[in-house]
Specification:
2 helices; alpha+beta; Immunoglobulin-like; membrane; three-stranded antiparallel β-sheet; 2 domains
Amino acid sequence: MPEPVQTLTAADRERIRRRYPRSWFARPAGVAGLAVTAVLLLAWLVWAGLDQSTPAVSGRVDRYTISDTHLDVTVSIQRPDPGVRASCLLVASAQNFERVGEVEVVLPPGGEPLVQQDVRVRTFRRASTASLEDCSAG
């Protein structure tokens, strides 16, 4: 048996309108605003990614030898423009990740774009690893 069809009265329509108010922005304007915002965010993301993808100076730890009082490290530092000064912070860390020694590796202007250098880091405790941080040009 089909249910009877009920019609809404003016009071019902008013009650429903007050309970579910209209959106505070017009739908076409809101969609256009969201689209513009999305395009701007995407453009910024692409720009930031491309800008940070080629650092002025990059470095890596090639190998290291551990001793009780020091760490002998071979690092490779690359700079696209050999005419600029480059520096990186070489950090020796203990097994519990505590910094036990650090030294700044500096390359003066001139030379090759890729430089391999042997560095000794004195430590106050036995180190377990070495890493390069904060490589910068200038």
